[in-house]
Specification:
Blueprint lengths: L1 E3 L51 E5 L2 E5 L8
Parallel strand pairs: 1-2
Antiparallel strand pairs: 2-3
The structure holds FE2/S2 (inorganic) cluster.
FE2/S2 (inorganic) cluster binds next to loops.
């Protein structure tokens, strides 16, 4: 499985002590690209658990859609 992700940030997020989750005592960095609290994990990755191998998905406004074909402008 794969997913298309758009990133709009143009600078890094600096992690400090205030970012530590008071209950869990850790910092969870989002690796799926879907978090609304990016770069921190907000649990949105749970939407990816049933993605199928070999498929490409796009998530928009909380909705998952499968991409049938990617076409690049320069091809
Ligand atoms: S890893 Fe992306 S929301 Fe959790």
């Amino acid at each position: 499985m794969a997913r298309e992700v758009r990133h709009t940030a143009t600078s890094p997020r600096i992690i400090d002590e205030d970012d530590i989750d008071a209950e869990k005592g850790d910092i969870a960095i989002c690796l799926c690209g879907l978090s609304a609290a990016y770069p921190f994990c907000d649990g949105s990755h749970q939407a990816t658990h049933d993605e199928e191998s070999g498929r490409v998905y796009r998530y928009e406004d909380g909705e998952r859609r499968e991409i049938e074909e990617l076409v690049f402008a320069d091809e």
